[in-house]
Amino acid sequence: MAEHEKKDVDAHTGVETTGHEWDGIKELNNPLPRWWVWVFYATVAWSVVYMIFMPAIPGLPGIGGEYTPGLRDHSERANVREALADLQDSRGPMFERLEQAAAEGGITAIEADPDLLGFAMAAGESAFGDNCATCHGAGGQGAIGYPNLNDDIWLWGGTFDEIRHTLQVGIRTDHPETRYSQMPAYGRENLLTNEEIEAVTDHVMALGGLIEPTEAGRTTGAEVFELQCSACHGVDGRGDQSIGAPNLTDRYWLYGSAREQVRNSVWRGPFGVMPNWGERLDDATITALAAYVYLLGGGQPDEFAEAALMDRGTGGAAGE
Amino acid sequence: MNLIDRRPKAAPGVTEIDATPVNDAEVRELYKKREPIYPKLVKGPFRRFKWIFMAVALGLYYVLPFVRWDRGPNAPDQAVLVDFANARFYFFFIEIWPQEVYYITGLLILAALGLFLVTALFGRVWCGYACPQTVWTDLFIAVERFFEGDRNKRIMLDRAPWSFDKARKKIAKHAVWLVIAAATGGAWILYFHDAFDLLSDFFTGQAPLTAYLFFAMLTFTTYTLAGTMREQVCTYMCPWPRIQAAMTDREALNVTYRVDRGEPRGPHKKGESWEGRGDCIDCKACVAACPMGIDIRNGPQLECIGCALCIDACNDIMDKVGRPRGLIAYDTDDNIDRRLKGEAPRYRFVRVRTLYYAISFAIVAGVMLFGLMTRSTLELNVTRDRNPNFVVLSDGSVRNGYTLKVLNKAGEPREFALRLEGDPAFEVRVLGTPQASMMLPVDADETRDFRLFLTLPPEAIDRASEDITFVVEHPGTGETARAPAVFRTPLER
Ligand code: SF4
Ligand code: SF4
Question: What does the entry give for GO biological process (chain A) (predicted)?
């Protein structure tokens, strides 16, 4: 103890040491640098000012709220809400222009206006990434059971209005106007014998050019097809977009083109579902989404748009 | 009070000044609190040149943002403008886009090589005359001198107890410093916005927050660096004094005390012979004049910024004692040695080192000039969709999607003709343009994205991928830009 009480002064500098020693090295008891001390005082002063003006002390009794709100009544939550509202406001005019163009000239009018086209593509792309990419893939390329949106093959129609409608009502949802079709589960519900299922599988695969026609397919298969399938898929198997019946003669097979996959579709009757986005997204976002999907490359012009296209050939933009 | 006048005379009519080289490496510890330096005003050709240079440099700095340059209706008309919002840099006839920052790199290389060259030729003339730290410090010292008087008066004022008069002088000095500092920060921000607009917005409180922020920052740094830190910036903060050692050599001109002529030094009485002694009368006028607080007679040292004020100071003394000027002068280390050995001095400006710097400078400048002259006002970038890689359509044809970025760097809106080199069987469709047209309109000074689809019919598909080249051409000027790309088909697996 005694050593600790007597002041130990470093001979070289004449500065008192703290009395601590490590391996012969002693720590000088220099005062803190003045700038450091002033910064420290400044932070203390600042903390008092901060407490007065900003939300600070939680859990005090009798202050009504959960914390002292401070004179400035600052709230990050309110700021975020405000920022979001501002964002909506700033995008509002563009969305209005988009809706108006869509209503007056359809996709043609959107395409004709570079600003609008850029906006629709950007807004559509971000909405697509948030909502659709999970099933349809980041580029809309689809997967087995989830349609490829890039090609020109559409179950429910590929015009701008049809795409938008599909987005609004969804497929097999509880929306009253939802897109709805049902293919019977021929195998699971014992509507056809195994032999008949094999035969009709042969038949549709031949229709789509996947295999050479087989004997069973040409006879039993064709017969079954005419009785059971042609009502929806058409006698020639070309499908019907108004009832969502796929075209069986094109190159695209939503549930796969391997024999096992095609047979499986007949056996269980596929029943894909897409949410009705109308209840989650606002109309303008859905319009942007429809434009984006249409412009992925597979969108099909309808009559209205086609007429407008003629106009544009001579320089006039549709909707003007 | 007359503690200075009682000192022994260095020579008749010349007062020895009580000046210590406080910043000399010899007397300075590794870290020491700054000791104030009170540079004495000198008169002479170098001082005059410095005033003129200061006036020109500051004049340029303050006037340049207001100079206009007509670039047509779609571009800003400010001659020198860094337009961050639109990612453009304008310098008179030069306009630089973000992807052309290599011009800025080139400019920096030129500046470095130029600095090397002049350093190899004339020593630290950059530090002495052109460096902003020097220019503003010099200005601040002039203000100080205006309010507080020259060296002796300033020393006495600082030693005197606080009085109303002292306070008045100090406050006035700092007020003027602050005004200059604010004007410095204020002019800086003018280079980043339209100067006239910003000036009015600034005073009505409508300028962007960043403008005020940078204004405050530069005001603060100018005030502290030029007002209170001065030579410490050059000695401790600036890397250049260290680097320059590699740039100069024994044959570079530097502010030099000619030891061969000056030593041995000592006071000199009128009528006394100059035989057997040097020309330096040890009056310390050179030390008192030095804004860096050093004694040039101790030889070349990194603290010296080469401002040549000691040359002016000593020449004045030499005139008074009737010795030739140039005891301190721009000279080379080599010449000192030569004279000591009895050889004639020589000045060689064309040396391997200077040639090397000059040639490198010329090459870089030439390349940049060539680049600027042949700079295209049209550019094309193509990215192919990767997700999906390709799309098979119902009839078996294959489609690839591409995004074309067309940069129109001209000052007017232009239309470019698109064509494809490679397989002619493609069906081309460009979103946002009339179906049959292959004309891509782009606004003035803009980049526009076009989405484009190429479709190949099934019978034409025979390879995993086709090499194609997109070409855009401006029909008016024949300017073209090309971008290679590929077209992928399902045959790739
Ligand atoms: S070098 Fe010149 S100015 Fe400096 S002390 Fe000697 S005579 Fe005086
Ligand atoms: S020694 Fe002379 S040249 Fe060097 S900084 Fe001092 S006055 Fe300027």
Answer: oxidative phosphorylation; proton transmembrane transport
